[in-house]
Amino acid sequence: MVKVKIDGFEIEVEPGSTILQAARKIGGDIVPPAMCYYSSLKGSGGKCRTCLVKVAKSSEKDPRPMPKLVASCSTPVQDGMEVENITNPGVLEARKAVVEFLLINHPLDCPVCDQAGECKLQDLAFEHGSSLTRYEEERRTFDKIDIGPYIQLHMNRCILCYRCVYTADQLTDGRVHGVLNRGDAAEIGTYIENSIENDMSGNMIDVCPVGALTDKTFRFKSRVWFLNPMDAHRDCDCCSGKATVWMFGNEIYRVTARKDEYGEVAEFICNTCRFEKKDTADWVIEGPRHIERTSVISQNHYEKTAGDVPGTMQDN
Ligand code: SF4
Ligand code: FES
């Protein structure tokens, strides 16, 4: 095991762990935000720079600080390493600059975006963003593209984190989309709008940190904070069948995989569970989902107001 100190908190982690993984073991405010890293996707991380931290001491053997801020999601810890995140004003300043950079092309359409309330970029902009933009040039705009019958891509909102590409690569066979071109011309291409028909393709919606990939069966139906997330399961041949169903009264408005406090999915679900099972009779409803991440959807204390009858909430 190697010892690492992050913002004064010491922890021992397995050799080869990254600074971000060590910080998540400590938990709380000292965990750097992450827009592109996703623990279950191989190769993710290193794209968005939101997780930058300062390494004030490289290791016990070499106590020199690292000259530049480093991406915590892809920098392995060394024994005796000391890291500064929220205790370093330079890191917070850099994070602000990264948010400004990510927002250069991202439209401020939270009031009509399905991801509002669950959006990592919205959270980041709230914590580190500025209320004014210095950007005067025209933003990139794209037409919306249907990727198959269930998923819509709205490239205007994409921050090119590559998570959906890794998901398609690692969970489905025959990936038909990827990042085309480079620099400010880079975009998610669907190879002449090929649809992605694989059974697990809907997981791209769950991993997208912004509202670029949305569920067509849920688009504009409701704001997420009006819905009650409930843990539910069903017998499924294709996936674990464990999901979160988002209910309004006794109606299921959408189905997603279960996410942890970092918004990451532990068990991916199939398209049948996600898009085709919207009847309460399809599911065994276990009870209100505990939303671990700080968000507008964790503010309504559903767990305290849940009624005795599964699937019905008293405060709706
Ligand atoms: S569509 Fe979403 S998941 Fe895919 S690269 Fe863009 S922001 Fe990331
Ligand atoms: S989360 Fe580390 S660079 Fe994106």
Overview of this structure, please?
The structure is a single chain. The protein is of the alpha+beta class and 316 residues long. It folds into three domains: 87 residues, Roll (Ubiquitin-like (UB roll)), CATH 3.10.20; 97 residues, Alpha-Beta Plaits, CATH 3.30.70; 82 residues, no CATH class. Helices cover 17% and strands 19% of the residues. The strands form four sheets. Strands 2-1-5-3-4 form a five-stranded mixed beta sheet, sandwiched between helices. The chain has a four-stranded antiparallel beta sheet with strand order 13-12-11-14. A three-stranded antiparallel beta sheet has the order 6-7-10. A hairpin with a 6-residue loop joins strand 8 and strand 9. The longest helix is centred in the first third of the chain and has 14 residues. The N and C termini lie far apart (49 Å). 37% of the residues are buried. The C terminus is likely disordered. The structure holds iron/sulfur cluster and FE2/S2 (inorganic) cluster. The site of iron/sulfur cluster has 14 residues, from helix 4.
